[in-house]
Design a protein that fits this description.
alpha+beta, 5-stranded mixed beta sheet, 21% strand, binds tetrahydrodeoxyuridine
Amino acid sequence: MISEAQRDQLIAAATAVRANAYAPYSNYKVGAALLTADGRIFTGVNVENASYGLTVCAERNAIGKMVAEGVGEITAVAVVTENGGSPCGACRQVLVEFGADVPVWLCDLAGKIHTTTLYSLIPNHFGPDHLT
Ligand code: THU
């Protein structure tokens, strides 16, 4: 069970890192933070490119950092945007590779928090079972 303090800490991390988003084309900054079983937090921001299609979302950049540090499972996710935007389909699929039906908090800059879960965001997802 994740405490309210941990939730607030995760949202604060996503809010803080959002400032570093590189989004000169869309001006839509995204900050993501992943909580792991050992209590660590991995953050990510969206990184855009003049060749627009090369943009990488905040959630997937956070996953990349986590995996690079040798961690393979998330226990909660926080995403902060100006208007509480929800993760794109690609990010949902990548998140569910590394998490069960964990809490996901979608937050805006006014402090509004929408609570959902990973399986709610990507029901009937494709997974390793389909490959056997
Ligand atoms: N974006 C994310 O970082 N995460 C998502 O799940 C949705 C979209 C970014 C990509 C792009 O830099 C900007 O938001 C507008 O699409």
